[in-house]
Amino acid sequence: MNQNNKEKIILGIDPGTRILGYGIILCKGTNEIGLLQYGVIHLAQYKSQALRLKKIFERITQLIEEFDPDEMALEAPFYSQNVQVALKLGRAQGVAMAAALVREIPITEYAPRKVKQSVTGNGDASKEQVAGMLKKLLNLNIGENDLLDATDALGVAVCHHFQKGLKVTTKKTWADFVQENPKRIRE
Fold first, then answer.
1. In this structure, are residues 85 and 49 in contact, taking their beta carbons and an 8 Å threshold?
2. Is 75 annotated as catalytic?
3. How far apart are CA 99 and CA 59, in angstroms?
4. Is 149 considered catalytic here?
5. What's the pLDDT tens digit per position in 70-97?
6. What is the rounded distance in angstroms from the CA atom of residue 119 to the CA atom of residue 103?
7. What is the pLDDT of residue 141?
8. Fewest 10 Å CB contacts: which of 27, 92, 114, 141?
9. Is residue 68 among the annotated active site residues?
10. For residue 167, what pLDDT is reported?
11. Which residues does 78 contact at the CB level (< 8 Å), separation at least 6?
C-alpha cells in the first residue's frame, strides 16, 4: 500500500456474472484523479457458475498484485425481483471482495444511484451519461457505448474518491436499509 497519504490508488468494481467491470484510478490530494487502467472480465463463455467465480477471483487478484490498490469500492447489487439474479450478483461481488480482503484492502460499497449522483450530479443518470462525464474527468478516449461496465466501475472508484471527505459507513443493518428506503419495501 502507498505510505503517502496524499496519493491513493482505488480499485472500482461493477460486479457481474456475465461481464464484470473494473477501473483503477490514482488520486493525488483531493483534486487530481488519473486513470491507471479499466476494462471488463468476460465470463459468459464459462458455463459453470463456480468457474465464473474462480475467474473473477483470479483476475481481481492479478489486478491487486499489479496495482497494489489502497482501497476497493464496489457497486452494491441493485434491488431485483429475480432472486436468482440477485444471488448470482451477490456471489460475484463476494468473490471480488474476498480477493481484496485476503490482502487486507478496505472495502466500501455504493448504491448505483449514489455513484451516478456523485459522478454526474443526477442519481437517475444513464450509463452513457456516467461514461460521458468520466470521459471529461479522466480524459478518456472511448466511444459513447464502449465498455459501459468498465466505465461504471470507474464511476464507482471516482465516487469513492469524492466521498472520502465524508463519513462513509459500510456497516448498516437491515433496519437502517428499511428506514432509508421505505418505498423499496413491499408488504
1. no
2. yes
3. 9
4. yes
5. 999 999 876 666 788 788 888 999 999 9
6. 28
7. 79
8. 141
9. no
10. 40
11. 89, 111, 112
* Residue 93 in grid coordinates: 461481488
Distance CA 184, CA 169 (A): 21
On whether the CB atoms of residues 149 and 14 are closer than 8 A, the answer is yes
Which amino acid, one-letter code, is at 36?
A: L
- Does residue 95 contact residue 56 with C-beta atoms inside 8 Å? yes
Classify 109 as helix, strand or coil. strand
Q: Which of 173, 47, 139, 156 is nearest to 96 (CA)?
A: 156
The three cell numbers of residue 88 are 448470482
Beta-carbon contacts of residue 184 (< 8 Å; ≥ 6 apart): 79
- Does the pTM of the predicted model rise above 0.90? no
Asked if residues 12 and 23 have their Cβ atoms less than 8 Å apart, the reply is: yes
- 13 closest CA partner among 109, 125, 105: 109
Task: State the cell numbers at 119.
Answer: 459522478
Share of the chain above pLDDT 90, in %: 61
Q: What are phi and psi of 119, to 5 degrees?
A: -85, -40
21, amino acid identity: G
Annotated active-site residue in 70, 109, 149, 152: 149
Per the residue annotation, which of 71, 75, 109, 152 is the catalytic one? 75
Question: Which residues have C-beta within 8 Å of that of residue 123, sequence separation ≥ 6?
Answer: 113, 114, 116, 117
Domains, in order of start, for the chain: 7-184 (3.30.420.10)
